[in-house]
From TrEMBL:
<dbReference type="GO" id="GO:0005657">
    <property type="term" value="C:replication fork"/>
</dbReference>
<dbReference type="Pfam" id="PF18439">
    <property type="entry name" value="zf_UBZ"/>
</dbReference>
<keyword id="KW-0539">Nucleus</keyword>
<keyword id="KW-0234">DNA repair</keyword>
<keyword id="KW-0863">Zinc-finger</keyword>
<dbReference type="InterPro" id="IPR052230">
    <property type="entry name" value="DNA_polymerase_eta"/>
</dbReference>
<feature type="region of interest" description="Disordered">
    <location>
        <begin position="474"/>
        <end position="507"/>
    </location>
</feature>
<keyword id="KW-0227">DNA damage</keyword>
<feature type="domain" description="UBZ3-type">
    <location>
        <begin position="444"/>
        <end position="478"/>
    </location>
</feature>
<dbReference type="GO" id="GO:0003887">
    <property type="term" value="F:DNA-directed DNA polymerase activity"/>
</dbReference>
<dbReference type="GO" id="GO:0042276">
    <property type="term" value="P:error-prone translesion synthesis"/>
</dbReference>
<keyword id="KW-0862">Zinc</keyword>
<dbReference type="GO" id="GO:0035861">
    <property type="term" value="C:site of double-strand break"/>
</dbReference>
<dbReference type="GO" id="GO:0005634">
    <property type="term" value="C:nucleus"/>
</dbReference>
<dbReference type="GO" id="GO:0008270">
    <property type="term" value="F:zinc ion binding"/>
</dbReference>
<dbReference type="GO" id="GO:0006281">
    <property type="term" value="P:DNA repair"/>
</dbReference>
<protein>
    <recommendedName>
        <fullName>UmuC domain-containing protein</fullName>
    </recommendedName>
</protein>
Amino acid sequence: MNLLLDIYIHIDMDAYYAQAEQKLLKIPDDQPLCARQWNTLIAINYPARAAGIKRGMLSDEALKLCPEVFLPHVETFKISDGKMIFSTIQDKFTQHNQIEEKISLRYYREESKLIFAIIKKFCGHVEKGGTDECYIQVSENELEKIEQNEFVGNLMCNLPQDYKLTEQDILIMKASQLCQQIRDTIYSETQYKCSAGISFNKMLSKLASSTNKPNKQTIILECMLPNCIAEFNIKKIRGFGGKIKHAFIKSEIQTIGQAQKLTLAQLEMLFAEKAQFVFDKLRGYDTEEVKKDSEQKHKSILSLKNIKKTFSRDTIHQSLELIIHDLTMRVTDYFEDTNLIPSVVVLHYHNIEKGSHQKSEPVFLSLPIDSFRIQIEDRVNSILNSIQDSDLFPLVLIGLSCRYFKTMSQGIQNPITSYFKKVIESQEQDKISKIIEEVEKELSPQDYYKCENCQQEILKTLKDEHNDFHIAENLDKEMNPKKRKYKSLNNDNKQQKQVLTQLMKKS
């Protein structure tokens, strides 16, 4: 298959959590609305953004800017008599107890399933990027059946005068029509609006989708490169690791256009064997394909809870009770859909002084389903007991994930099969220990991103929670600028910054 003739679409829901709350509460989409987590705003719709409200603001700040804004709280649950009790619509505009309750994303996931089911009716080669975005790779054969030949959406740049469309351009044109059909169907069946990008590679499709939000689609043709992406922030380039982005940012190179001024030889001085990769990306070229279903099968289920800075194991156990119930519910749902169970449980924790860490143990879940929670809880307690207080505290975040899913063995409930199950568990221990070593090292390179604020490797699924941590830290920094830890933040990577600055002067 000729990869040049595969076209890529990136679909991104517009302010998804806010849209979901609008739909649930039947609030018109022209009304300002922000989804609230405790007292912090985590999703802002476009009318609220127009009023000056930003993600991370406190509720009181938003109300001062826009007194008519709706501030519904995301769904939560608490534990009562060993059962999960979920908040109701009537609780949306009340205060919530951050200690006794945990955030639930159940509603957003259920709505997301409806959206992705629609997308997969149009195209089979779909890669989820989260609950609110996906990549679609469309082949030439799939696009041949589309007869109309006109672009639907905004071209990133005007075409040169007398420009003759290439075969690839015509396929992108057809893909733009397919994309519009998908977006129209999503809206008609679910009432969700989304933006999209269409281009000849994955990276450009994502860049394009962010250009004309909300509710529009944008097209990038090869003839528009590299100038059409020059104004994008360097942070927007998909696939750059933290070191590459951080090197540019530290040298005050903010846009792709500024970085394009560096020659390949100059980039080799900075990034060695990665220089060609960086050079190509800066000019809009990318070889990454959309992952197939078989490549996405190693699912990870993660549940987290931010907590007030603590030195207490009792507080940890209280939070873990909520997390374990949430995780078990989702593992059970996944098992009922797929007959797959996890092989490994991972405890994630963030020590405010030592950063993020994780520790794992194997888990062997057995029927009945009602016993899953107890089995997971036993593994979690074992992990927690193996961690020293000095490594845990002061703690600000705790979480669990289940990974490496496999098919559930049948018939394991009677005494004889239970005995053989123990033998099998013993035999599998070495194999799973190797899996755990992988988890402890890095889980998977695709699971992490490098935080541009602290340069730590953070799970992508922890991104929102980690950003919340930095919001709190920045407030602390403003109030306590003389703290020792804040005085040394700007001393790292000086040498690389100097090299880049000198190169930019020469360019």
